[in-house]
């Protein structure tokens, strides 16, 4: 759920099965940051360092401003110096050494790969690329030491305005954040093979060291066991007897099925699910402590079994009345309406519990867009129906919250985004805009929602 980007800028996923089509991921806004032009340095003397900024050629040929996050040697550089004719003069010897060093620099440069982050874009687009994709005349090396300067400056400011205890706590938190950022800044797995899909990953995930880093990780779509080698994957597929997630089926509508899983009773499956999900969720922190959570697995069912397409988790006990902790539709199944279905399922469960709920904050960029779209859909349809039945005057924010299980603050923020709320006599009042409601209903497309009659869950 992210800001838009041209289609070619989306990480790739493709079907292994010849008759299956690819589902594109969400797109993201593309803001260009100008990098001051510089005179192109001689190729042999260029040394790209971490935090350097430069325009980099994207996969479709577009130049995008980027920052170097990491670099690596992809093969041993040719350190052999250029042969020169032996002479007695010192100047000739110095010139020969200079030529040899330049050749070594050139070899080293072309044997390096650079992990870049495209500025103003989500981290899921970060990737390794070689120097041939850099527009070297835009190189800006002024940021190499900026991060260290910011850390020192912010530390001095905190010390002058906060107590020693608070200062120490802030320092420890900042250190943990830096360690986490350092550990997760580079994707450790390039792509996964799961079922009939080969999917390019988006983010780092803390798989055990014997499986990471690796180019391709093979994952069983039924038990979620992960393997590093294709031969192991083939053998596992032949002997794995699982054909559906563990837990109990709570929803079945044609070929759409949902399973509820207790994290404590099915710990290994849920841990594997969290590791898999982290490859596509930037800020997910739950990996191994799955006991306090319920997991709801959405699947497509065919003759071969129930194939996972997405999931959400929620705390068994939430003091903040969160009805959802993490939500994910896997990239190969996005644009198929599963995101709205999963959100609506979480609210149907809240209705069965006779509660109002809200997703755990903060939401991801994709999450914000999906939730805003869902809330708008539900509220506009409710207002349209109430208007036709002549019940608009008796409709309050509290009543809407009770009917939809959507928290009051989420209703208010949605109406505010539509300019349909006003503060009058000490309370928020819906400002009905019939033109906006009619226009929305006219142009809205059908979306896939959870249907209460197919939900067999009871509290």
UniProtKB/TrEMBL annotation:
One example GO MF annotation: transcription coregulator activity
Keyword Acetylation: yes
Location(s) in or outside the cell: Nucleus
GO annotation, cellular component aspect: chromatin; nucleus
A Pfam family assignment: zf-MYST
E.C. numbers: 2.3.1.48
Enzyme superclass (EC): transferase
Domain MYST-type HAT residue range list: 184-459
Biased composition regions of type Basic residues, renumbered to the chain: 78-88
GO terms classed as biological process: regulation of transcription by RNA polymerase II
Keywords: Acetylation, Chromatin regulator, Metal-binding, Nucleus, Transferase, Zinc, Zinc-finger
Positions of the catalytic residues: 360
Domain of life, source organism: Eukaryota
Family as reported in the entry's similarity comment: Belongs to the MYST (SAS/MOZ) family.
Designated name of the protein: Histone acetyltransferase
Organism classification: Eukaryota, Sar, Stramenopiles, Ochrophyta, Bacillariophyta
């Amino acid at each position: 759920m992210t800001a838009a980007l041209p289609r070619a800028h989306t990480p790739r996923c493709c079907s292994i099965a010849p008759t299956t089509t690819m589902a594109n991921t969400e797109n993201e806004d593309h803001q260009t940051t100008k990098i001051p032009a510089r005179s192109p340095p001689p190729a042999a003397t260029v040394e790209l360092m971490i935090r350097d900024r430069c325009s980099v050629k994207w996969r479709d040929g577009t130049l995008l401003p980027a920052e170097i996050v990491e670099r690596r040697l992809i093969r041993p550089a040719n350190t052999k110096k250029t042969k020169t004719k032996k002479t007695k003069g010192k100047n000739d010897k110095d010139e020969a050494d200079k030529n040899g060093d330049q050749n070594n620099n050139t070899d080293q440069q072309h044997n390096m790969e650079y992990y870049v982050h495209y500025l103003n874009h989500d981290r899921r687009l970060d990737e390794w690329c070689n120097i041939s994709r850099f527009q070297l005349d835009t190189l800006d090396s002024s940021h190499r030491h900026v991060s260290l300067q910011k850390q020192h400056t912010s530390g001095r400011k905190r010390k002058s305005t906060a107590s020693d205890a608070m200062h120490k706590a802030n320092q420890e938190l900042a250190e943990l954040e830096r360690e986490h950022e350092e550990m997760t800044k580079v994707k450790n797995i390039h792509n996964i093979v799961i079922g009939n899909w080969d999917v390019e990953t988006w983010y780092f995930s803390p798989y055990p060291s014997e499986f990471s880093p690796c180019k391709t990780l093979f994952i069983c779509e039924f038990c979620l066991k992960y393997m590093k080698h294709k031969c192991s994957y083939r053998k596992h597929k032949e002997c794995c007897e699982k054909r559906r997630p563990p837990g109990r089926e709570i929803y079945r509508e044609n070929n759409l099925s949902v399973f509820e899983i207790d994290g404590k009773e099915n710990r290994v499956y849920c841990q594997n699910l969290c590791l898999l999900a982290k490859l596509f969720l930037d800020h997910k922190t739950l990996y191994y402590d799955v006991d306090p959570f319920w997991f709801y697995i959405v699947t497509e069912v065919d003759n071969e079994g129930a194939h996972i397409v997405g999931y959400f988790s929620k705390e068994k006990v939430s003091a903040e009345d969160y009805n959802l902790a993490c939500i994910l539709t896997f990239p190969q199944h996005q644009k198929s309406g599963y995101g709205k279905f999963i959100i609506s399922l979480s609210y149907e469960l809240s209705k069965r519990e006779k509660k109002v709920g809200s997703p755990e904050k903060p939401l991801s960029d994709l999450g914000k867009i999906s939730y805003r779209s869902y809330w708008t859909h539900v509220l506009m349809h409710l207002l349209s129906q109430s208007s036709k039945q002549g019940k608009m005057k008796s409709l309050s924010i509290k009543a809407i919250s009770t009917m939809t299980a959507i928290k009051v603050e989420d209703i208010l923020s949605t109406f505010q985004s539509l300019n349909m709320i006003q503060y009058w006599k000490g309370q928020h009042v819906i400002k009905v805009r019939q033109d906006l409601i009619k226009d929305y209903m006219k142009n809205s497309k059908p979306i896939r929602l959870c249907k209460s009659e197919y939900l067999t869950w009871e509290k």
